[in-house]
Amino acid sequence: MDQRMADAPAPAGFGAEHDGFDGDSRTAVAGLGLVLAFAAALWWLCAEHPARLPDWAPWEFSWTQFVAAGLALFWYARGVALTPAARRPGPWRHVAYVGGVAAIYTVLLTHFEYMAQHMFFLNRLQHLVMHHLGPFLIALSWPGASLLRGMPPPVRRVIEWAPLQRVMWVVQQPVIAGTLFVGLIYLWLIPAVHVRAMIDPRLYDVMNWTMVIDGLLFWSLVLDPRPSPPARTSYAMRMLVTTLVMFPQIMLGATITFSTTSLYWYYDVCGRLYPSIGALLDQHIGGVILWIPSAMMSSAAFMLTLNNVRLNEERQPVMEDDDDGPAPISASAWTGR
Amino acid sequence: MGMPGRRALLGTAGAAVLAVAVPLVGSPADAATAAAGWHGIDVTGSSPALELSMTRASDGRAVTAADFRGRVVMLYFGYVSCPDACPLTMSRIAHVLDNLGPLASQVRVLFVTVDPARDTLPVVRDYASAFGVDFVGLRGTPDALAALARRYRIAYSITPATEDTPEAVTHSSAVYVFDRTGRARLLIPGLASQTPDLDGVTEDMRRLIVGDAPKGLMQRMWDAVLGMV
After folding, report:
1. InterPro entries, per this entry (chain B) (predicted)?
2. Can you tell me the ipTM of this complex?
3. Residues A263 and A191: beta-carbon distance below 8 Å
4. Is residue A171 in a domain?
5. CA triplet A133, A135, A138: central angle to 5 degrees?
6. What is the pLDDT of residues B46-75, one digit of tens each?
7. Is B86 annotated as a binding residue?
């Protein structure tokens, strides 16, 4: 995250937290209080009146998920408000960011989660949004600078804490990031592991968190608009990684799609929502979701990276041949010296 | 730190190949279940302990899990007007209890209706008692039912009747088994299938009723490790 800050203009009030920061810290506390108050209300409603809640309300309330989503939006909004108008991200970046957070929220904290707990293909759709679409949109909006500016200084210090940065550095090594990205999809789809995760609420939480966090790590590595450095790795490496992760996903998707036995008995016992969709059809659709949209996301990332290369080259001053010989333009022409 | 060395690369490649291979060879039969020797699916340590708040149909009393402590509990969701799956499952559980003989008195079969609007207390009472004395009919408020179904990942839905179609009810087929302390132990699949393993279920139930000494910490940790593989 500190690298993202590196390209951000040193913002007013950032790095100088004690300059009139008191008023700001009050809004930060108020925001946290508001998020916690909403969380408490929803938690109580989910515990006491689950049958009366509308479809957009949570099915299984999760404090960590709700507070994370609430703070992600609040810190972003606050960070943008604290940014001088000329340096604020454009409207499409706001749309991508809010859309990404909202997409993850929808699959985890509405009644969609109930559906995803009882149909394999909807579970695959949930994972696609948690691990691909949502984090992809968030990374595309490149919100690091706004978030850092909007969060309270103690949280910022945690994020900038050296050991945490070192962990980030390791897991964002291209080879490790790609292996983690694919490995987590495979891990949670090992039939015995998948079933445990679905019936054990604690493991279920771990699964969802690992998917969202890994999605954010991976796509923020690939969709970094900047050249390297300050970006983690070269544009070429990013295009290579996003291409290579496609094949194991296609292979797994195809394996599940064409499997002739029901691999995940959990959905036989604790499913299914629609009598017209049996075990194998459910699995076929789930396999296709694992196979095609995830590969399309990689292609989209590849194209976006190409576009980043182009934008970056256009931004470069045309002085690339400087090293080859004497400068073609002599400063004496305008300095007179 | 620079780029990972060749050895690390080989390691990750090996892990990736393993990750590819496991789902390919993994069968629906749970390895952990086989290791622990149960016929049903071992959910010890995974599914949450028994917790409910319902009305008992036989006497109209509010009951919680505490009322069933000391008994081995089977938990099943259904509805009285169910044409096939529920009566089939219930009669097969009755068959298992028959097999158990006198030990059956240590078992309580909880039948929770997913259609509380139509299944009034007398209706549920008569339905449950028709399968045997150890069957307990339970009816809860829609909120209590939703909370219980959510806890055990049971899907259920009721589509109200229209002029052309009768009311349609769907629900999951899972039968959970809890030990005397209320801990979730087994999930029994396929009781409404054409080839239910009734002898296996009987053996599992007998094991839970008679000799089921609680395992030590090391044993449980080892089981958890096996359960993950």
Report:
1. SCO1/SenC, TAT_signal, Thioredoxin-like_sf
2. 0.79
3. yes
4. yes
5. 110
6. 899 999 999 999 999 999 999 999 999 999
7. yes
Instruction: Classify strands B135-139 and B156-159 as parallel, antiparallel or unpaired.
Output: unpaired
CB-CB under 8 Å, B1 with A248 = no
Q: Taking 50 as the threshold, does the pLDDT of residue B24 lie above it?
A: no
Please check the confidence at residue B229 and state whether its pLDDT lies above 70.
no
Domains of chain B and CATH, by start: 31-228 (3.40.30.10)
The answer as to whether A97 is a domain residue is yes
Distance CA A192, CA B30 (A): 6
Whether B210 has its CB under 8 Å from any CB of chain A: the answer is no
B23 touching chain A per CB within 8 A: yes
Q: Round to whole Å and give the CA distance between A274 and A259.
A: 21
Residue A95 identity (one-letter amino acid)? V
- How close is the nearest chain B Cα to the Cα of A263, in Å? 5
B104-114 per-position pLDDT tens digit = 999 999 999 99
**What do you get for the CA distance between the two ends of chain A, in Å?**
45
B39 carries a ligand binding annotation: no
Chain A residues inside the 8 Å CB shell of B174:
269-270
Q: A321 in a domain, yes or no?
A: no
**Structural domain count of chain A:** 1
Give the H/E segment covering residue B80: none
C-alpha of B83 from chain center: 21
Retrieve residue A307's tokens.
């576009």
Structural domain span for residue A277: 22-314
Q: How close, in Å, is residue B124 to chain A by CA atoms?
A: 21
For residues B173 and A28, give the distance between their C-alpha atoms in angstroms, rounded to a whole number: 48
pTM score, whole prediction: 0.81
In a domain, A73, yes or no: yes
